[in-house]
Amino acid sequence: MAESLPTTSPAITPAPPDLPRLTELRLSAFAVHRRAGFPLGACTLLAGPSGSGKTSALGAYEALTRLSGGAPLAEVFPDPVACVPERARPDVQRRRGFRIGCTAEGPEGPVRLDVAVQAEPELRIVGERLTSGGLVLLQTALRDPGRHAVEAAWHTAPSSPVTRAALPDDRLGTPLLPLHVAGRTDGQRRVLAAAEQMVVALRSVFVCDPRPERMRGPVPSGSGRLLGGCDNLADVLGRTRAECGRRHALLVAAVRAGCAGPVTDVRAEPLGDGTVRAVLHRGDGIRTTLGRLGDGELRYLALSLVLLTGPGVLDLDAAAEVPAALQTLTVLADGLDRGLDARQREELLRLASRMCERGHIRLVGTVSDVSWAAGADGVTVVHLDP
Predict the structure, then answer these.
(1) What is the CA radius of gyration of the chain?
(2) pTM of the model
(3) What domain range includes position 288?
(4) Which keywords appear in this protein's UniProt record, sorted alphabetically (predicted)?
(5) What's CA 52's distance to the chain center, in Å?
(6) Per residue in 57-77, pLDDT tens?
(7) Is residue 135 part of a domain?
(8) Which of 176, 187, 209, 246 could join 157 in a cystine, given CB atoms 3.0 to 4.6 angstroms apart?
């Protein structure tokens, strides 16, 4: 393999310091987790053996993301009973459920969101609380089990402390607040600002798990944004190379550092039948198609591309009403080190920490063994016990 990546990247502009971002994930009662809280830094690795709940923690993060985008509960939790802690006992009305939450930092300071979900006998949100600075800005509760609605109360102003209304019990209330809160008083504006901070922090998330078996062959051209499995990586390579030569140069340097043999370029090659394939240029006219690369090389290439791109290229549900420059992209990567050799792990972590320190991108990945990342600058390691 060639030399390591350069230590500086003048092409990447640092982000403003107050961009909304998640700094804590709370799993009060979710799958194998009880009273668990995980700090989230710019680059976070969740480490632990099989059965410690790494994948379920990422699943809870993704669920909050989808709920913040307005997705209904049944779509987010197709098997809700699997989210209920195994030893959770039903109450006298035979109800069981789970609780998840998070904290978003930004211009409004720390904003907390906590959600209680009933999984049995019927899937519904039974409680939600949005708080900031010790003040409850939104609180919902299930008052009448016979109605598919919760009673919501949000902060208004000192003269009229709260406003009450019914909200659906199958969707998160926080992203619905702009439809119900007028924003005429200081209290209402505070509610809206906190809700916006939470939603923006949660929405720009890309769930990534590259699948080498789908990356080797040609793909249709013009397929759009990069998929979570990176199936259409070849087509997206052509787009990124044309749109930003400086970032493409960083990608080539990353591939050169993590793939065997010389690499002078990474290109998308049209085949004339409406498809395109990706090739590595080796110099002296030698080219290697992705079909000849190993699984580890393909996963390393795909993850490097994800870290070097942005919301406009990745297939994610970003907050369209907020400019991209005011959002922080978060990449969720289960099995981040899967299939990678020691050099590839180190190079990928070096690239991730360098990109994350600039503020426009954050990474939360799971690994089974984190000894190779010990002492790495800018990396938050969270150890999970089974």
Answers:
(1) 22
(2) 0.91
(3) 214-315
(4) ATP-binding, Nucleotide-binding
(5) 20
(6) 999 999 999 999 999 999 999
(7) yes
(8) 187
